[in-house]
Amino acid sequence: MLKKQILIALFIILACAGSRAHRYMFKHLEVADGLSSNTVYSIYQDRDGFMWFGTRNGLNRYDGYTFRVFRHLNNDPYSLPDNVVANICESPEGMFWVKTERGYALFEKDKGVFVNDLSGFMKQLGSNAKNPMSVYVDKKGYTWLYVAGEGCYRYKQGEKPKVFVLRENGLPVSGITAVGECRDGILLLYDTGLLVCIGRDELDLKWKRDDIPAQLPKGKYVQFSLFTDADDCVWIYSVLGLWVYDVPTGRWRDDLAAPWKHQTDFVHAMAQDKTGRIWLAKEYKGIDVFDKKTGEVVNLTNHEDDERSLCHNTVYQLYVDRNGLVWAGTYKKGISYYGESIFKFNFQSLGDITCIEQEDAQRLWLGTNDDGLLLWNIQTRKFEEYGSRRMGSNPIVTLLKTRDGKLWAGTFNGGLYCLDKGNIIRYTMADGLSSNNVWDLVEDREGNLWIGYLDAGLQCFHPQTGEMETYTTANSDLPDNLINSLCLLPDNTLVIGTVGVAFMNLQDRKIRKMPSAAEDRNDFGVNQVFGDSRGLVWIATLEGLKMYDPKSQVLKEFSDITREEGEMISGIAEDHRHNLWISSTRRMVHINVLQQGEEGYSFEPHVYGNADGLQNCDFNLRSIKTLKNGTIVAGGLYGLNIFNPSEISYNKQLPNVLFSGLSLFDKEVEVGKTYDGNLILPEDLNKVRKVELDYRQNIFSIELATDNFILPEKTFFRYKLEGISKDWLSLPPGIHRLVFTNLNHGVYTLKVKAVNSDGYESKEMAQLKLIVRPPFWLSWWAYLLYIIIGVSALLFARRLTLKREREKFRMQQIEQEAARKEEINQMKFRFFTNISHELRTPLTLIIAPLEDLLKKTAEDESQRNVLQLMYRNAQRLLMLVNQLLDFRKGEMSGHHLSLSEGDIVGYIHEVCNSFLSMADKKHIRFSFFSGVDAFSMAFDADKIGKVVMNLLSNAFKFTPEGGRVTVMLEYVEGDSNVFEIKVSDTGIGIPDGEKEHIFERFYQIEHKGQDEMTGSGIGLSLVRDFVRLHDGTVEVFDNIGTGAVFVVCLPVRHVDVKAELPKPVCVPMDEGQETAMASTDRKDFPLLLVVDDNEDFRLFMQHSLELQYRVEVASNGQDALTKVQELQPDLVISDVMMPGMDGNELCRLIKGDKRTAHIPVILLTARQAVESKVKGLETGADDYVTKPFNMTVLVLRIRKLIELSRYHRSAQTSTIDPAPSEILITSLDEKLIEKAVKYVEENISRSDLSVEELSHELGMSRVHLYKKLLQITGKTPIEFIRVIRLKRAAQLLRESQMHVSEIAYEVGFNNPKYFSRYFKEEFGVLPSAYQEKEGK
């Protein structure tokens, strides 16, 4: 507790110290300035730049000069629904969301119309509510609307609305009091303190933090608010306290919230300025400004004696505009706003300060008019005692601190004082002074004190000897005994300001008047002479500012700086940048001196006044001083202005000009209102940028404004009205209205630029188009009307002629282009047709001998398999050639229908039977259903057969193993009797977007992972054409679950011609029958693994290599990788192009595994490019063979690679065959084996039973199970499971009547071929032979 109290005390000290060190000066707006109410609840700057204030009495728009107020009107349904405006935000479409006590309303600010009924908008979002509870517009332009009981809706014009349903995400459906955002997404804050973050794009729950509810009493509900700073720290505040959550680190920052933890005050609003400081608006104690980097807290409150302090201590709202201004809305005093460049000069009210001298880095000596000499501390802003006895009450007019540390003070009618280490010595006429009216003091290089008197000339006082040298008009060339100012130049010349200016050479004590040209006066009244670092002499006179260059003896006058003839200049000082600061009547002039050439100078003046923070009074003569740290202090009647030129913040924001209003005959023009039948402003003037007036409405004025609210009274506008003048004109600062009278009819363009308070001009000019319509009798079209009528006939005739000729030429171009394209297409078609015809003859000569050979080689099964492989692929090639010829025939002369009467059911059934072998080969369940046993109708058998074959070919092509293909026939009776053919599959399906294109010619769908499943793209096009020839239709739909359904509807017709239906070609397929090799022991043969996704190629390779090697096959890379790891083959032959894992990836994985890196890999591909070969070899392939290849060469490469691999392996290591010692199985081992056997038997039909599952069931790791089973049984876990499967299969072969394939699936093998191979390895015979021998 004590530590907390100490911590709080330290923060209070820091806050107090900060309030002294920092000077925050505010400007104010209230009811007297046009604000509708001094109670301000909300502040917002729109995208145009106008400021908007929500008050207790309406909505206010502020343009820097005037307010425009929107209130509720009883008889106006488009007015503000309620005068209490609690919140304002703007959507990207420019619409305002205005929250009142009656809920939200949409404000079309360009039209000045409020939409109070939001039920239609909410219905579009999908909400049943009539009004949202809270609205927030995020940085990406999304509008978030919270509706109690439903959720948060996300809306953006042009996008479909989405909703985050609170209940579905386990969140309370009501109680959200604030919506914000952070880098993770959108923040929702509940009245319990629960903080939730949802994804901005996915609308998912990112995270939630319930730390605050845990700290509060149960059932406590309050209004929480939040603010996210630039570091993504979320500040949460309410009447119960303040919390800070750091989103990047995911922790609560108690260190940041510590200054406000135990305060009785609470926070209303927060904002962050452009320097990163956090501003906190409080209920009782004004504003806290918190620096996160240093931890410093500065408290800003109202001070009755300081008009630049915060206007009221209860602050409801804070807002930082685009230019960095901080706006504060208060409870009873309107608005205060702060900007670093608004007040450039700090002001300290200390009374009438006549002269200034520096004591040290923190303290100043101040001479006053009526309070003597004061010692003032700049840091503490307090006076300090400097001795036991003070000087008299005579006005102190000059102060000088000499090199020996003494302070000299000259007074009016009180003589000269010397303050030395707390002792005060007074010198009067009795001590040798020429007069008691000491007006100025200066010290020369020898330490002598030069004294200028108001009425007695000049004296040199030698402090060491006490001697006096007196110079008057009587004994010297001094122009006058009135000495107003003295200064010493670097060349040891004393400049004397009197009636005119004189110079004294301190070496010979000679005085001379300032040399000047004949036209230059030298009898002006001088207030101060000042020598700068360049040696230039600056002269402050009663008539203005002058500068004298001793080198060129040129006197320059600055008449452009003085506002009017005879303006008095009070004082002069030089800053550390060698620029001059001139004090005058209520003004401070900054002169930037620029070198031009060797001796010339240029001068840039900048004038500052009361609006910049200067005291609103005259500055005292010579009461200006540059301190050692560069700070300049200027004294006036009310106190001190203190500023450091290097720290002045300038308004560098370039202003954008806004057109804020239009007045006609000195009356404001309202949006949407007609005047004399003329709708002048359909929308806000700043948006339309166009005004069209009747010729009688030619006296009007335009209100100008900018989006820069820093000292708008110093902003001035430059404008040019094109159509009248080409010159740019300027309005006086503070004047923002352009008045135009008696403009002649015509079109004008008003161009306007703005120059801000510190002289920065806008780069882009604003333009407003002005149109003054002429009267009818002066309109140009009245004069041209008859000419137009006379000429129009000729122009119309000419136009028709030109149009006809252009159309004729265009049609000729189109015809020529179409003819050229048609000729090219015909050339392409002829080429493919000729090639196709040429292919039919060789194919016939291939297929016919093959059919003859198939009949003659019925007994030689091996040779028959090879011939069947050749026959199938030749038939496939012939089918493609025929399809291409059919397509060409349709292109040239169109397809012709040859109808004949026949049984369409039987014919289609025969076509389907030709696919049975393919279905069996791909393990696809192929079904045929017909609602009628037979149905006779007229159809073209050739074309219907091709339709069914094309549909079935696609179905089988895109249906994976284990899938289903179904053909259904049905006769549908009705108004039009139709015969319906449905072909469905469970394949990869067809996306909705592709269904309308698949019947187009050459159109193909790209399926990921289906690289090899390509075609010509004309099959379905032929299907559509053949069906249309029958006056039928073909459509495609999604199958239930997955896949597609093609529906062909043929109208039922009858003809007298009987059909002789052709027999569909039934290609003999490999039935997968089990063949046993010769009884030769092949276990010592090298083992090859052939990987290819083409079944025929795998069979060919297996047949070609099985005489010399044991051959295993795999259909894809993933299956091959598994077999490589299990079987450890001597060599792998893999195709490169495969779906899923290709050959290159398989090779890389084999070579990257230490267990398989020694296995040689040969890659096969049809790609001939060198780049493909390099890529394959880079992955680690031992050889790269391109298709087609010579089998003899390939076999030779295989043998050499295996020999080389075995040689390297034998050379590198010598193997030891480990033999396990005899062990005795303990009872625990027996139980383990018994449990393992039981679990495998219970799950024997599951092909996915894994070693991980078995080890988990037995309660041990996979490694432990491997070692234990190998120790007890001599088998690995995989072998253990396989042996149990095979022994159960042997039982079923002996005892049951099931087929071999059924038993294979029953014991968990998903491939009967694998089952046959492993069964033979275990029992020495094939399963069929075993069943025949051992079965009952």
From TrEMBL:
Residues modified to 4-aspartylphosphate: D1135
Transmembrane segment boundaries: 777-797
CDD domains, sorted: HisKA
Sequence ranges assigned to domain HTH araC/xylS-type in this UniProt record: 1234-1333
Gene3D superfamilies linked to this entry: 1.10.287.130, 3.40.50.2300, Histidine kinase-like ATPase, C-terminal domain, Homeodomain-like, Immunoglobulins, YVTN repeat-like/Quinoprotein amine dehydrogenase
Domain Histidine kinase: 834-1054
InterPro entries: CheY-like_superfamily, HATPase_C_sf, HATPase_dom, His_kinase_dom, HisK_dim/P_dom, HisK_dim/P_sf, Homeodomain-like_sf, HTH_AraC
Coiled-coil regions listed: 797-824
Catalysed reaction, written as an equation: ATP + protein L-histidine = ADP + protein N-phospho-L-histidine
Keyword Transcription regulation annotated: yes
Domain Response regulatory: 1087-1202
Family annotation (Pfam families): HATPase_c, HisKA, HTH_18, Reg_prop, Response_reg, Y_Y_Y
Enzyme class: transferase
Keyword annotations of the record: Coiled coil, DNA-binding, Membrane, Phosphoprotein, Transcription, Transcription regulation, Transmembrane, Transmembrane helix
EC number of this enzyme: 2.7.13.3
Xref: PANTHER family: HYBRID SIGNAL TRANSDUCTION HISTIDINE KINASE C, TWO-COMPONENT HISTIDINE KINASE
Protein name: histidine kinase
